[in-house]
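tl;dr need the bound structure. longer version: we got a ligand ((6S)-5,6,7,8-tetrahydrofolate) that a collaborator sent over and nobodys looked at where it sits. i said id run it. heres the input, straight from their email, havent touched it
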Amino acid sequence: MSAPEIWSNTRIRSTPFTSRIEAYGVGAYTVYNHMLLPLKFVSVEDDYWHLKEHVQLWDVSVQRQVEISGPDAAHLVQLMTPRDLTRSKVGRCYYAPLVDGRGGLINDPVILKLADDRFWFSIADSDVALWALGLAHGLNLNVKIFEPNVNPLAVQGPKADELMSRVFGDSVAGIGFFGFAHLDFGGHPFLVARTGWSKQGGFEIYVDNDDLAGPLWDALDEAGRDLEVRPGCPNLIERIEGGLISYGGDATIDDNPLQCRLDQYCHLDADIDFIGRDALRAERDRGISRAITGLFLDTAALPTVRQRWTVRQGERRVGDLTSAAQSPRFGRGVAMAMLDRDCWEAGTRLTVDSPNGSIEAEVTAIPFE
Ligand code: THG
């Protein structure tokens, strides 16, 4: 029996690149931020090898921007994240957890500082604008909050520098990791950042001009012919191996950023005011009881993880598996799981209940080595 289709409708937004990726042949979509996100082109494994060897164009329009601007913008942005942004700089990107009053993870965006009083939150899959609007209303802040028409196009893979410099010129090389600059294409300045949801290197172009979106895609496609450029998308195998968590899947509002191993972005002792500070400090002092952990799975056939799978030590339930994929690099399954603290040690043997029966698993550190 084949899986049921997901039907499109006007609530599920398409993007300025949808016609391009469908002309090439997109194999599967998911819905993310009420918008289409491609998940597969040739096959997840073929896409994986191509991403690691060449360069891909990703329609990641689903990474919506929430713009916060105005006299109270910097204050509101800092209230929303435990990452200390007091010394943040215009022209830089900051990966930052957003938390609620209980320390629960609301989202894990990349924050772009466009000006001292203007920010973009490049969000994962949850309605951050509503949270920000509620805070601004409740606290009577002088800010403007909206979702601009910006559709990010990622250029990812080891040949991304070469391809980008062919289209945008040599100044691409001057953009440092998590920096951004405005570069010309077709007479329009595009925000180009050295970021992206893979560990293969590359850029993200924040396409804020619908008329130039198609021509930009085509220019990258043509300039990259000899580099074997092709459409791609966030790759399940590559991002699990690299330890990139997917909000909504691996982490939800019931988890805090310490459990999600985002400690390095939580400045709990900094002299800053943010929502959830007391809860996160208490959680740190208590010691987290569970955390996202890597698992190797001893299996050749791995069904799709549609619901979390129970992870056991003997008969005792010790957590949930949240994502899994067959890794060509390791020759076995790789997975992310939220596990109780007494099973974090690498090498611990566990059992996973998949819909196709139980699978033997071994705990390992993230990223996978
Ligand atoms: N790019 C942009 N927006 C995004 C994503 C992105 N929004 C949704 C989602 N991805 C947000 N989540 C992440 C998770 C990890 C990273 C970026 C966005 C990431 N992390 C680096 C790493 O783990 O190696 C470290 C970053 C750092 O140290 O500052 O890149 O991909 N625009």
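gonna send this back to them w/ a short note. The chain has three domains: 18-63+150-234, 65-137+256-287, 289-369.
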